[in-house]
Amino acid sequence: MQLDEDRIDDAVLALLYLGLHLEYRAWKGFDWDAMDRLHEKGLISNPKGKAKSVAFSEEGLKLARERCEAMLGAKD
Fold first, then answer.
1. What is the pTM of this model?
2. Do 38 and 48 meet the contact criterion of CB atoms below 8 Å apart?
3. 35-73 as b/e, with b when 16 or more CB fall inside 10 Å?
4. Distant-in-sequence, close-in-space partners of 15: CB < 8 Å, separation ≥ 6
5. Three-class secondary structure of residue 12 per DSSP
6. What is the per-residue pLDDT across 41-57, written as a single tens digit (0 to 9) for each?
């Protein structure tokens, strides 16, 4: 099966938003390839290292919120 990495990245970004803490940080418990792509896109800080969380960039936080609402928000 061929996977759409952009859609995977959107889903991971939305799920990272669910783990938001300290206003802009999120726990990093997702696929490393997706996390690396999000970092390369400038949406999160470097996921490599001892820290258990990553920081969203300003753009990343905005996009994460949008993706979370669009993908996981309740339907009226």
1. 0.88
2. no
3. bebbbeeebbbebeeeeebbebbeebbebbeebbeeeee
4. 30, 68
5. helix
6. 999 999 999 999 999 99
